């Protein structure tokens, strides 16, 4: 770059400041482009996750949600919600038990919240 820039100044009337600025822009642009390539892996991973999410979103459920046959429509529902000795693990990791003998009673009209760290299985 320096040799070519000096030739432009000497024989073609180029200005030193312009040559320097172009060299600086090329260097900074190259660094930015290089750091952008480092992030390509994350874009690839995100597209893979997005593809899986779309499969889940577009799947056809085994239960027909629009079918009202065989069910009963209740005018109102009231009562406590209670879990007794619940054991839970995800189907993909049956050996990793998430809840072991979990019990919880929520009285009618009570509002509760499930609180925990991000990705801790509140889902």
UniProtKB/TrEMBL annotation:
Keywords noted in UniProt: Glycoprotein, Membrane, Repeat, Transmembrane, Transmembrane helix, Transport
Lineage of the organism: Eukaryota, Viridiplantae, Streptophyta, Embryophyta, Tracheophyta
Source organism of the structure: Protea cynaroides
Transmembrane domains' residue ranges: 20-44
One MF term in the entry's GO annotations: ATP binding
Similarity field: Belongs to the ABC transporter superfamily. ABCB family. Multidrug resistance exporter (TC 3.A.1.201) subfamily.
Domain of life the protein comes from: Eukaryota
InterPro entries membership: ABC1_TM_sf, P-loop_NTPase
Protein name (database record): Uncharacterized protein
Cellular component annotations (GO), alphabetically ordered: membrane
């Amino acid at each position: 770059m320096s040799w070519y820039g000096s030739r432009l100044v000497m024989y073609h009337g180029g200005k030193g400041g312009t040559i320097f600025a172009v060299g600086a822009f090329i260097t900074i642009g190259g660094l930015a482009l290089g750091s952008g390539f480092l992030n390509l892996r994350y874009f690839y991973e995100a597209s893979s996750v997005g593809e899986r999410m779309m499969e889940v979103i577009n799947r056809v459920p085994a239960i027909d949600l629009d079918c009202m046959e065989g069910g009963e429509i209740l005018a109102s529902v009231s009562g406590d919600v209670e879990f007794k000795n619940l054991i839970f693990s995800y189907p993909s990791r049956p050996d990793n038990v998430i809840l072991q003998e979990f019990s919880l009673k929520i009285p009618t009209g009570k509002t509760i919240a499930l609180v925990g760290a991000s990705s801790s299985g509140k889902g």
